[in-house]
User: Fold these one by one.
Assistant:
Number 1:
Amino acid sequence: MIAWDDALTVGIAEIDSQHKSIIALINDLEALKGQGDDIAAAKALQFLRSYLHDHFELEAELMLDLVYPGRAAHQQQHELFVNHVIFFEIEKEFGVVSEQMLSDILAFLTEWFLTHITREDRLLGAFARAQTHPG
Ligand SMILES: [Fe+2]
Ligand SMILES: [Fe+2]
């Protein structure tokens, strides 16, 4: 279970609200652990992935609009993440799905997401706010 913490605030309303939704989706996936329901877990993972895709797109557009200097590095992190999640899904397609795999996915998602928000997304938020309210 991830609990929302003010330390996760980026300061851009739309991004913060999407981050909260993503945390809720990760928690939903967590709730499926130990249920042995492969199909529900696969659906929840798929939904989370498409939500994340839209979220990364929103951040990418913002970075482009702001001519954000850290754009390439930030986008690369998003891509590495997506590739990693795709890798999990490929394994799943070949039937290598297990309780252990769901645990691994959750551990990875949680760790990656919280680290990414507190570093890259917060830097982006600070930059965006400085542009809107200079000084
Ligand atoms: Fe984000
Ligand atoms: Fe990001």
Number 2:
Amino acid sequence: MRATMMYGAGDVRIETVADARLIETTDALVRVTRAAICGSDLWPYKTMEHSETGRGMGHEAIGIVEAIGADVRSVKVGDVVIMPFAYSDGTCLFCRAALQTSCIHGGFFGNGQVDGAQADAVRVPQADGTLFVLPVGIDNALIPSLLTLADVMGTGHHAALAAKVGPGKIAAVVGDGAVGLCGVIAARRLGAERIILLGRHPDRIALAIKFGATDIVSERGDEAIERVRELTGGFGAHSVLECVGLDESERTAFSIARPGGAVGRVGVPQDETMPASRPVFYSNVTVGGGPAPTRAYIPELLPDVLAGRIEPGRVFDKVVSLEQVPDGYRAMNERAAIKVLIEF
Ligand SMILES: [Zn+2]
């Protein structure tokens, strides 16, 4: 089968590899029909040290179950399934607490241990806890939006929950990538009265406004902080969604939260330390978030996608074949694309 392999910064290749196969009795084998390139794939694309063996990439997919292990009960051959970016058993203490990204038998796809989903097929560990069976056909027009439930829409929702978005509140979203845009959808869905997007790219801003953003701040650093304060009567936002993970974006996020407010972080932090510790302390700002348990959110978000009330699939603005995936990485890295959909 073909798979996307990364050998170092900027070095993505489509190669023929050994076919994915069942190993554990709790595995399922999924033939991938749609996958995606994630903003988080761009971190190794920018920084990965050269590797002789390469790393199988990809952690978002929809596909068809081709085989199941002897102990799999909740999915069957032929099912159309979503594969969230983390696998999880669905039964441990953390899964039962809806924190599947901390599953004691869990892990992450495409991280070098379990193979990636930017491939013809993928082995899914803990299939019963991981896979979600979809009630639609594989060519349904909603498939791109459903694919976002594997990661970006669930991650935006997680940011909004951690930021305590609710009716009447002012939300601010730091970052205009696919997760930030889904954060706008999530903030509106949870009832935010105003949604301030901090972003600079005209096409992304236009989409954010369609998704429900009411104000746009394109300044950076201290000017951005000042502008958000102006827009919020001098106090800042109740709920801030940090969807980037860089030192500057985190500093901005923490600085625009009003006293007693909350910041939900879903941008993978690129530094060990958190900036703005002292202002966060003196403002009694709650800081939450982390890797989103997107598996937990599929049942909640699915009805809104199926009914067309939210359209997160609009973040896909470039479609490639598997052979064209290296071009997809380039386009996202150069910000020529918001998010790339891979069609098989
Ligand atoms: Zn678990």
